[in-house]
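Model it.
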Amino acid sequence: MKYGVLGLGIAAALLLAPAPATAKSASAEIDKRVEDPNQWPAPGRDNQLTRHSTLSDINKDTVGKLQMIWAQSMNSLRGQEGQPVVVKLDNGTPMMYFVSGCPSMPLCNVVQALDLTDPDNPKQIWNYVKKNDRDESAIPRACCDTVNRGLNFARGKVIFHTLDGFVIALDGKTGKEIWTVKHAYPEHGETHTGPAMIAENLVVAGFGGDEFAARGRLDAYDVDTGEKVWTCQSTGSDKDVCLTPETNKANPHYGTAGKDLGIVTYPKDEWKIGGGAPWGYFSYDPELKLIYAATGNPGHWSPGLRCALEGDDHTHEKCNEYDEKLGSGPFDNKWSMTIFARKVDTGEAVWAYQMTPFDQWDYDGVNENILVDMEVDGKPRKTLVHFDRNGFAYVLDRADGTLLRAHKFVTVDWAEKVDLKTGRPIKVKEHSPFEIGVNTSACPSAMGGKDRQPCAIDPNEPNMAYCPTNNWCMEDEPQERTHTQQGTVYVFANVYMYPEKPGVTGKFKKFDVLTGETIWEIPDPYPNWGGALVTDGGLVFYGSLGGDFRAVDRETGKIVWSRKLGSGIVGNPITYKVDGKQYVSVPSGIGGWIGLPVTAGLDMDDKFGAIGATAMAKATGLNSIPQGGTVYTFRLSD
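Modeled.
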């Protein structure tokens, strides 16, 4: 599929045109909307997650006139780690939809529908919150705050999820429920912060819960009825994981079917509570008919309990023998920390690449997989770009999974490098928090060189990524396990996080994924926990947890515009156009793992609180940032 700038004539003709009724599938409808630069029809704008817009009215020359034009409360103090969608209904009405986080029941995951006919003065025409059958136990079981990462729109439906595990389809005009399914189960450690994705005529959904002994899986539902079409687990037998004899055919060293690696790479029955939850953003290639969804960590953070041999009494001698090799593979804990390419119709895995075998640091592999086409080593490739928590930026051939590049994009000391031939990291024992009761330092911290906050890439410059990054390290001390109960906190480690360099905890950077070169970077005393937006106006937009919403010259890295918003920013900016005027919107409101000590009112003197987040919140002064979820919208002044 070719991604490029539309001709001006075509763009002018579209002007927020609704998708035709003849669209072959729900995702084809989204693809058609994407061709219109005036809409933002999906979480990443497109299903390839580029977060790129061809709009250019707001540019380096005009951005100085950018002013806030309206703001709308999200009905929640919690921030939203997602973004609105903007579409035009079949009756011609331009609409914005967004959903709030879940601070408490029943004011939990409130959906708002704003009519943008008068784009400077939007009118809420309906709102929705599910009031029955809610599960309040989901709130304390949400590992890293009760945020929401956004909703979808297709076939005239707003499709969203709730923290306590419902996937719901609403009529986009009225807000009336069309279907509701129970997808995730908090009693099993499963909570859904999302988002889901529309691929063909399916709603593809995962959930979080690795820190509550959940067993990860990916489910697909019919977009019109909510009926479940397929399920694929992240751990277990080849059949459970949806592996076939063809899986990893081009790269058998990644692991193949026939050995039930999702079982035998764990001791005893650990795979049954082995994590691997796919809770991040998913992407889709409509030509290859492949869904790209990545998985999280293998459960608890005391890795010495995840490598004992059959019949071992967990005295860890055999684990220490494995530690000497640090990469031999018998206890990789597959298929955690893995990018899966799955057939959309069945979920069958075409390829599966594990980035962090035998994870010891909680380097969840769930970050977004951006699909762009680029030339690599003189050959045109359909590529997948992935900035991982473990500090490496990966480029893979998205058709067969071949690893093409793996560069460090932040300070990394847990591994020397990634071997491109084997695909495996070369680990450094000194920085492996392996033995119980032994404190070990490692960079990056468990929050990663980049957490879930998404990068942006202009497909016309596919090797250049604009990324918010984290710049802190940690001390990690694994602990003895006290239980194996799903739905109960299942971490067993003391983690203390600290800035890599005093006074700098976030950097927003332009990074070349082919060469590993940082083109420019902007240091910040606050973490960068919100996503990026790149436009043809020569600008990149992003926000800081300090509440600064910024526009940056994408060539030079110079901040050319900035406004202080009412709270820290953990959401992702979007841009759209109505009545000939370009708008930029961004959710504000502190939240997420880094903001949890503030939103949950934790003791800032507990340096191990929120699995290490409290120390970081105190070190960066996040306890001084006010709360409040709000969508802010800007346009050029007249």
